[in-house]
Automatic annotation (TrEMBL):
Transferase is among the record's keywords: yes
Phylogenetic classification of the source organism: Eukaryota, Metazoa, Chordata, Craniata, Vertebrata
Domain of life of the native organism: Eukaryota
Full protein name: Protein-lysine methyltransferase METTL21C
Gene Ontology terms describing biological process: methylation
CDD domains on file: AdoMet_MTases
Species the sequence originates in: Charadrius vociferus (Killdeer)
Length: 213
């Protein structure tokens, strides 16, 4: 099947705020307030997160997250994890140690008063301590979510190894990314060599591709 061509909808809602670094979004009937930080790449909402959040909201029959175990790698501000939680998933949101405080704040703020599975926030450095921190005998995920984890950085091989580690038989990887550099396409080629991957949707205005693997 050819990928669907979509636009990233303006679910962002401008609000008067005393904080320049808070953004308001609406997904699955819930207003989500995200605190961003200019100190870390992982503390900003990137286009891939908006694309995947929108896709999960619009394709709940195809990707039913209710009571599913979901792991987000490179969760950043937590927007995608929050949306997955609203959709009924058991969510584990992971990122680097320096991002976890802001990530935990956003997830707690946006899920504390909801009747849903409470998300877990954990440290995950790609390629490091996987068998110790997430032993296969204990941890199995139905979905792995990742958005804008591929950009100009040196950890692409550990990232691919991390994706391969968590993707066991029956696991679905949903990866949305803004394609900027030749290295992004090289990563895509490596991913397709390991996984059975297809492009679900493309967002041409933002150069975002959404893949299922």
């Amino acid at each position: 099947d050819s990928p669907v061509t979509l636009k990233i909808l303006q679910n962002w809602v401008p609000r008067v705020s005393h904080y320049f670094d808070k953004e308001h979004y609406t997904y699955v009937g819930h207003q989500i307030v995200i605190q961003e930080s200019i100190e870390h790449f992982g503390a900003v909402v990137w286009p891939g997160a908006l694309a995947l959040s929108q896709y999960l909201e619009s394709n709940q029959e195809q990707f039913n997250l209710k009571d599913k175990k979901v792991l987000e790698i490179g969760a950043g501000t937590g927007l995608v994890s929050i949306v997955a939680c609203i959709l009924g998933a058991y969510v584990t949101a992971t990122d680097l140690p320096e991002v976890l405080e802001n990530l935990s704040y956003n997830i707690s703020r946006n899920t504390q008063n909801m009747n849903m599975h409470k998300p877990e926030v954990r440290k995950l450095v790609w390629g490091e301590g996987l068998t110790e921190d997430f032993p296969v005998s204990t941890y199995h995920y139905d979905f792995i979510l990742a958005t804008d984890v591929v950009y100009h950085h040196a950890a692409l091989d550990p990232l691919l190894a991390t994706m391969a580690y968590f993707c066991k038989p029956g696991t679905v990887l949903l990866w949305a990314n803004k394609f900027r550099f030749s290295t992004d396409y090289e990563f895509l080629e490596k991913l397709c060599n390991i996984f059975n991957a297809t492009i679900l949707a493309e967002f041409p205005e933002s150069n975002v591709k959404l893949l299922k693997a």
